[in-house]
Amino acid sequence: MEIRKLQLIGGSSYMISLPKSWIKENNLNQGDELVLQVDKCVVKIFPKKSTENVFRVKIERIPSVDDKFLRRFIYALYIQGPDEIVIEDTLSPKVITKLSEIVRDLIGLEIIDVTDYRVVMKCLTTSDFDVSGVLRRMGQIVLEMMDVIEEYLRRKNPSILSVIPKLEEDADRFYLLAVRLEHKLLKELSCPTKWNEMKQLLGSRIVAKLLEEVADALYDTSEFVLNVDNSEILSILLDLRRIFKVVLDSYFNGNVIICEDGIEMAEDLEDRILKSRGVNEGAPCKLALESLLEACRHVKSIGEIAFNKAVRETMMV
Question: Coil, strand or helix: which one is 305?
Fold first, then answer.
């Protein structure tokens, strides 16, 4: 660790010299621009030209180009938060097509250059998002899914449910975006004064996953209700929607009392679904109740995180 003294320049500005070795390592010259990231107790300095984070991967280093594996691999790269992903070496037309299909499912990622020897994917727009905004959008998607299932249960028109797979895919896309944003933010939260923000960020990561799981459970529900004629399913769905709205609002607003109400309502609904599942006959009905039970438990978990978040924020006032 080096210790250097501040120098007063011109009566109003302060200056500190930078190590010559650091200047050489980063190939900097007089007049080059530096980026300053200022926290309360720390100032981080980056060469401007190195602030873009580029992942370069040779295709031979990817163990498999099977559709499912390649998709999971690119998703894993995306959520790490790079500005650019470059896949290099000789690429078959089939692999290039697969990469194009994968990129379409990742918010903000675009292919900007394609040759037989490399594919360049650049993230263009995710700086316009924040984690809270992404969670709100995921919550809206879940509510839309509930509304669609409700409409089907009332009208019994199967075509109504055709939008559910697209909504579930959107929930997945926004979940990956939330994880990407959280990864990028975690890299910046190294100062001790940011530890409370880090706890909140880790909590939002869990909420994002729970919202995705709720969307998955509702997707399953939409499949099972096609063969069900049971008014209890509609009643449970309406209660679940009301509870989800309470829990989600309490997560963003930080009201401890409302959080507790949401958790208790979710527990009551969970007991009700368990009882209903025990008396209803027929596999489709039981499966629909099972998926609603799963969604209810995830909603209750969101409520518990909202409660802990509200208590923490109260203690910080």
Answer: helix
Nearest CA-CA partner of 104 in 75, 73, 66: 75
Q: What is the DSSP code (8-state) at residue 12?
A: T
CA distance 122 to 16: 36
- What is the widest separation between alpha-carbon atoms in the chain? 85
| Residues whose CB is less than 8 angstroms from the CB of residue 107 and which lie 6 or more positions away in sequence, other chains included | 125, 126, 129, 173, 174, 176, 177
193 pLDDT above the threshold of 60: no
Which of 33-42, 90-99, 146-155, 173-182 is predicted with the least confidence, judged by mean pLDDT? 33-42
Task: Fill in the amino acid letter for 21.
Answer: S
Residues 196 and 200: their CA atoms lie apart, in Å, by 6
244 φ/ψ sector (left φ>0, alpha ψ -120 to 50, else beta): alpha
Query: What is the C-alpha to C-alpha distance for residues 7 and 15, in angstroms, rounded to an integer?
Result: 5
| pTM, to two decimals | 0.78
Checking if the pLDDT of 190 tops 60, the result is no
Element (H, E) at 70: helix 67-79
Q: Which amino acid is at 165?
A: P
- Predicted local confidence at residue 41, as pLDDT: 67
The CA distance from 134 to 127, in Å, is 12
Task: Please determine, for residue 37, whether its predicted confidence score (pLDDT) is greater than 90.
Answer: no
Calculate the dihedral angle through the C-alpha atoms of 278, 282, 283, 288, rounding to the nearest 10 degrees: -70
Please give the angle made by the CA atoms of 62, 65 and 69, to the nearest 5 degrees. Answer: 85
Euclidean distance between the first and the last CA atom of the chain, given in angstroms as a whole number: 36
Lowest mean pLDDT among 210-219, 232-241, 275-284, 294-303: 275-284
What single-letter DSSP state applies at residue 26? Answer: T
Phi-psi region of 16 (alpha: psi -120 to 50; beta: other; left: phi over 0): beta
| DSSP for 262-277, written as a single string | HHHHHHHHHHHHHHHH
